[in-house]
Amino acid sequence: MRLPYAPSTPPADADPSTTEIYARIAARRHPRPLIPLDLSLLHSPPVADGWNSFLGAIRTRTILPGALLELSVCRVAVLNSAVYEWNAHAPLALKDGVTADELRAVREVEATITDAGKEALGRSVLSEVQRAVVRYTDEMTLRVRVEEETFEDLRRAGLNEREIVELTTGVAAYNCVSRVLVALDVGENNGREMKSVEELVA
């Protein structure tokens, strides 16, 4: 990483609020240890605390199917060349039911902000709702402004209002995550190749 990682436990001179922040982050990660992203953000405990609360809500308090959330996260990782994010979330996508062929399409179909990308997406193995999620993710990530047709595709694919809000905040959140990961080179992954789908399913 471009900065040294913060300590994995509160420093001896930490004030009570910082100690409490460490405890909240550790509770969300339990039984796993703090990850490199946590140890990057903990240089600013208040930021790490807010981040933990926001991402914790997206990951544990939403009704959007996990497979759709992870599909969108993996697409963000591909678009932003966030190796750490892909390597962390592609296995979660597979665990949540995304097939190897679907994950391969998420990685290989070119950005759907072009006609060629839209055509490639249409020929892919992805389902109607998965295609709608990919297009929405692409436009949010690369253009910010989402076309009306793309938004309506989410409704036609069956997502309700809460799920659309949760998808939107999930895509926004993991764009934020990827930008921090890449800018600070968290996990020392910049310049490395993303794991192939074949490696992930081996």
TrEMBL record:
Domain of life: Eukaryota
Domain Carboxymuconolactone decarboxylase-like: 45-119
MF annotations from Gene Ontology: peroxiredoxin activity
Matching InterPro entries: AhpD-like, CMD-like
Protein name according to UniProt: 4-carboxymuconolactone decarboxylase, putative
Source species: Neosartorya fischeri (strain ATCC 1020 / DSM 3700 / CBS 544.65 / FGSC A1164 / JCM 1740 / NRRL 181 / WB 181) (Aspergillus fischerianus)
